[in-house]
Design goal:
The protein is of the alpha+beta class. The protein has one domain: L-amino peptidase D-ALA esterase/amidase. The protein contains six helices and 14 strands. It has helices spanning 3-11, 79-85, 100-114, 147-155, 247-264, 303-324; strands at 32-39, 45-52, 63-72, 87-88, 92-96, 128-132, 173-174, 177-178, 180-189, 195-204, 235-241, 273-280, 328-329, 335-336. The strands form four sheets. Strands 4-3-12-11-10-9 form a six-stranded mixed β-sheet. Helix 3 packs across helix 4 (147-155) and helix 5 (247-264) packs across helix 6. It is globular, with a radius of gyration of 19 Å. The mean pLDDT is 93.
Length: 348
Amino acid sequence: MTENLRNIARKSDWWVHPEGPTNLITDIPGVTVGHFTHNNGETARTGVTAILPHSGNLFDRPVHAGAMVLNGFGKSTGLVQLVELGEIETPIILTNTFAVADCTKALIKRTIAHNPDIGRRLPTVNPLVLECNDGMVNDIQAFHVSEDMVDRAIDVADRQFDQGTVGAGTGMKTFGYAGGIGSASRQVRLQGKHSYHLGALVLSNFGQKSELRVMGQKPAFFNPAQPDPGDKGSIIIVLATDAPLDSRQLTRICKRSAAALGRLGSYLGHQSGDIALAFSTQNVKSRSGNVLYDAQLLSESCMNTFFHCTVEAVEEAVLNAMWHGRATLGYNGKILPEFRDFYPARSA
């Protein structure tokens, strides 16, 4: 979060758990994020965001994962197998609704290039692509996202990355303002000096303006005379941790992200596709390795701390998406305003 909002949050004691070193999902070692932004000033305001759980061969060394469909108004691919096997075996791709097919094909091709026996001697690959609808300002029928954009987003993935109206978030809105990509992280401090990190990245495209709550407070700048569509749009929530959690525990964390949306003022409206997934970078093994392998597992008695950190990280990630969002003029003349032009912290 930028300095103004962070100071306000600290003064109000809104956050309980300390942030990670950079307050990004990439505070989890090995995790990287990359964007490809496509804004041609005409009909395209869209893009691709790639999240890599580690830099190795994900098909050979998948990460343990869980997922939760909070509201199923969405068109993602790969969730069914993720839930069944509890694994992620490709980069996680975020994009717009009509770009899912092209991004899926790009992931399949890229994975085959690194594993030529896929679909022949080896099983098929499960590409993971999730979406939100940026059609308010992007001409979604023009199919602006290409397969090449997926490769370019993956190729530039790094620990440092931009937030707001970039990558998949270029044309997204949140509570009526320019939104998109946001991230935050928490240090998870447990008894016995054990310490881990939990990070969140959101593709934020949801919320009803009149219901917005910023650190528990309803902003005074809402104008009830203006149109106020219901809670619709979607949000994709990606959670990462370096704690040794299995797929069941990671699914439990996903469920708690709904509490963060409630704190912000969402009621997960009818046309809002709200999906959370989580992965751990621990206990990774090669599929071609031994039948048995040693692994650690965190005690269930520690889960409350992870639940609380999840709620804080997701809530702050959404606020960061709004704070970093830039005003967007759509192909049809509609404008998504900047949240921080209205929020009083701009002059704090």
